[in-house]
Structures are given as structure tokens and as C-alpha cells.
Amino acid sequence: MPIPGKEMPVEEEIRASSLYSVLKGIAKEHYEVVESPVRDARGYTAHSGEGQRIVVMKVPGEDINALHTLIHEMSHARLEHLYRKDITRSIAEAEAELSTYLVRAHFGFDFREDSAAYIKGWLDQAKAEGKDLDKENIDRVMNNARWPINEISAGLMK
Fold first, then answer.
1. Least crowded by CB within 10 Å, which of 20, 32, 66, 151?
2. Strand ranges across the sheet with 51-56
3. CA 77 → CA 45, 128, 158, distances in Å?
4. Measured distance CA(50)–CA(13) in Å, rounded
5. Are strands 43-48 and 51-56 parallel, antiparallel or unpaired?
6. Smallest Cα–Cα separation from 19: which of 140, 154, 111, 112?
7. Is residue 71 scored above 50 in pLDDT?
8. At what angle do helices 63-78 and 135-157 cross, to 10 degrees?
9. pTM: predicted TM-score of the whole model, two decimal places
């Protein structure tokens, strides 16, 4: 019998699968989205002709990871990290992961420890480079996170 107030892992995976499907449909309206094995990563964003390609490693039964990766890579694309020469990779990764954390938290997925460790690693590197997140970065993250939250919510209502 499940603990009251706690989701079973299977239920969480089913919810992640539903959100992933909605978000993938939204992403395809703006980017080329490919599900493919990825070496040394769970996904990446790259140039693709006139736009951007988002590649997500999607393993059957791991929709939570695929959802996380799709949000993260969409964040890179929406924040135009491929084109922003004024933002270091460390700041770009921190922005994308912070956006991902906010979106996932909104939909009830708690990965504070994983996201915090990832963000901390990139922020430590940024500090070593003499960089840090500032108000502009936080504003970008907040504005970026609002978009998929609103789009997914609307998609779930259909």
C-alpha cells in the first residue's frame, strides 16, 4: 500500500511520459527534435540549417530523465545559448538547469539534490572564470521557465 501523499514511481513515470509527449509536440513547433542515442550526455542542442536541433536520449521506461533533458535542451535553445558569445558555457548550463528545475518543480517533480549539484558545479566553474549569475541571468531564467510551464499547462487542457 502506498504512503499517503507519496506517488509511486510508476505513477510518476506515467505523469512524466504525459508531460514529455506534450512538451515534445510543443518543441517540434519551434525546433527539430530528435530522439537518438547520445554519447557521453543525455542530450544536446546544435545548429540545424536555419534553426536549432534538440537531441534527446530517450530510453524506454526513463521518461522522467527524457523530460528533464528536453526541458534543459529547450532552455538552451530558447535562451539562445548557441548564439550568445557573451555568456560562458558555465553560466549557460546554470541558466538552463535552473530553468529546468523551476519547470519540473512546478509540475511536482522534486530533483533538488540533482539539480543543485549540477548548478553548483557550473557556478563553481563560473566563479573560477570570474563570472556569476546576476539579476539579468535570473530574469532570463524566470522568463524562460514561464513559457514551458504555460505551454505544457495549455497542452494538458486539450
1. 32
2. 32-35, 51-56, 43-48
3. 7, 25, 25
4. 34
5. antiparallel
6. 154
7. yes
8. 130
9. 0.86
